[in-house]
């Protein structure tokens, strides 16, 4: 059985003092929940703090985005190598907020996936449909297009070096999570598509759900066979709420 992974996407939130309180609470709160994996994706200026506080613990950390270039005249950008130097294990790529405001494209996200793995980072690749696309009933078309763009860049076996995350745009930050059944159907569909290309990769790759994951819906979401954890946004700003989600992930583990 694939171990659950719960990732805190703290977005553009935090300060030295509030980060310290959150990370201390996370370290203490997850101590008795060893049957899942946990990671915190911080704003770039605070990666040093995450490394200092989490190094040597079971909790990993990561960045929220990165350039597709390794170096150069790209003022304001952060390279994958820079993120890796702070001990990061993960980096989020393809998040809808970057697609909408950062002008990311399916192709450029595929390039990010490849360069992340070259330096030893595990990309958390986000895909998902807008409300309009959801209402049109084309979630499958949209997510497969996004997934295939990455596969075209790195090959299906390259997916093994990262994590996938289905994040319907209409559920992010709205409080309206996808139903566990809807999320399961989409993740099963995505896994089935990968299985057509490589059954071993399909079986082993972790696919997360993101979009208004909360303490009161986490257990039901994590009970679904193809949901391997959560990419958590708003609830990661509340230590107790996030720890409760981690508890649900640990409890979902079956020997």
UniProtKB/TrEMBL annotation:
UniProt GO cellular component terms: cytosol
UniProt KW keywords: Cytoplasm, Gluconeogenesis, Glycolysis, Isomerase
Transmembrane spans: none
Catalytic reaction list: D-glyceraldehyde 3-phosphate = dihydroxyacetone phosphate
Active-site residues from the entry: 95 (electrophile), 167 (proton acceptor)
GO molecular function annotation: triose-phosphate isomerase activity
UniProt family annotation: Belongs to the triosephosphate isomerase family.
Protein known as: Triosephosphate isomerase
Organism in which the protein naturally occurs: Methylotenera versatilis (strain 301)
Lineage: Bacteria, Pseudomonadati, Pseudomonadota, Betaproteobacteria, Nitrosomonadales
Gene that encodes the chain: tpiA
